[in-house]
């Protein structure tokens, strides 16, 4: 049962990264506008496509249980700056709707970072890519 929960946890954790990569790709122009609002005007292509690459590659590594530590580090390279740049609730007026939402998103991202740190120190269970290759004759 532990291995099933491990697989389910990796699926659920990686889903948010795949969804965000899809969102960046599908709404590219809106994301470029948001980057401009947050002051990221230099080399937007590099940051946008780099973020998509980190999200997809790190998400796949977590999902497949293959080199999860590297996958978690790749995702943290993206997730930590994003959290502090985009969800800066401390600049909003306290008690406003914007303050409440940004602080909620900030804490949610902290929880995701905690999950990534756990994934970085965790050895995935029976259902992982490396184990499947080791037990089958290819």
TrEMBL record:
An example of a Pfam family matching this protein is DoxX
Q: Does the keyword Transmembrane helix apply?
A: yes
Quote the subcellular location field of this record. Answer: Membrane
Q: What is its main location?
A: membrane
**Is Transmembrane helix among the key words of this record?**
yes
- Sequence intervals crossing the membrane: 7-26, 46-66, 73-91, 103-123
Bilayer topology reads:
Multi-pass membrane protein
Which superkingdom, per the lineage? Bacteria
| Keywords carried by this UniProt record | Membrane, Transmembrane, Transmembrane helix
Gene Ontology cellular component terms for the protein in this record? membrane
Protein name in the entry: Putative oxidoreductase
**Organism, as annotated:** Neolewinella aquimaris
């Amino acid at each position: 049962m532990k291995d099933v929960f491990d697989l389910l946890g990796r699926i659920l954790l990686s889903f948010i990264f795949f969804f965000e990569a899809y969102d960046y790709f599908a709404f590219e122009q809106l994301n470029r506008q948001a980057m401009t609002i947050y002051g990221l005007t230099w080399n937007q292509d590099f940051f946008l496509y780099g973020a998509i690459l980190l999200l997809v590659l790190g998400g796949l590594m977590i999902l497949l249980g293959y080199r999860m530590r590297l996958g978690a580090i790749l995702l943290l390279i993206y997730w930590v700056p994003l959290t502090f740049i985009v969800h800066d609730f401390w600049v909003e007026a306290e008690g406003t709707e914007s303050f409440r939402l940004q602080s909620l998103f900030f804490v949610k991202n902290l929880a995701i970072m905690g999950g990534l740190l756990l994934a970085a120190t965790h050895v995935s269970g029976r259902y992982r890519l490396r184990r499947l290759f080791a037990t089958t004759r290819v």
